[in-house]
Amino acid sequence: MKDVLVFDVNETLLDLAALDPIFERIFGAAVARREWFSQFIQNALVATVTGAYSPFGEIGMAALAMIAQRRDVQITEDGKAAIRQGLGSLPPHPDVRAGLDQLKKSGFRLAALTNSTQAVAETQLKNAGLSDLFEHILSADAVKRLKPAPEPYHMAAQVLNVPIGQMCLIAAHAWDVTGAMRVGAHAAFVARPGMVLDPLAPTPLVVGDDIREVAAQLIHLQA
Q: Which domains does the chain have, with CATH numbers?
């Protein structure tokens, strides 16, 4: 088992459900947050597949405009600012700190790799009280290609100075773990509620319901 672990951030480590009250206030329905994030990811994937690039935050605001149009809602600048501020101060899932501490104490090297810009990623992890655990906080913006394109995973391996086959990507998104495995990295899947694997994709090294479960399995494999 390799000892270099690279974590996705949004939904994997940080809880987007904290935005639900903001979406409830703006749209009258907390479920609009899930609609927005699904549209957000869809737009990001379309851009990546077609060779276009926009910063992740810009894609998120475009997805927000689409949800507003679909729901016939006018979003004020204050509403947009509230969502941006909320994204910067998302809490970690309850299992995250303990799981990461376990891995750190067991000798694993930890890094974060996100589609968010560098400034947003650093702010998020600092406000969540997690930034001290990571050797590097990496943004796909550095290579102007979003995950699951190959470039961000290769960039992470280069920065961490390991062959990509000695890196393990940990995420709660099937598309992210699939992207990592398709370029030769290992992967671990965090099966948070509602998250399932793609049956057509390779099987991850580890599957667990939360970071603590994933950590326990990785530590066992390392022994």
A: 4-15+91-222 (3.40.50.1000), 16-88 (1.10.150.240)
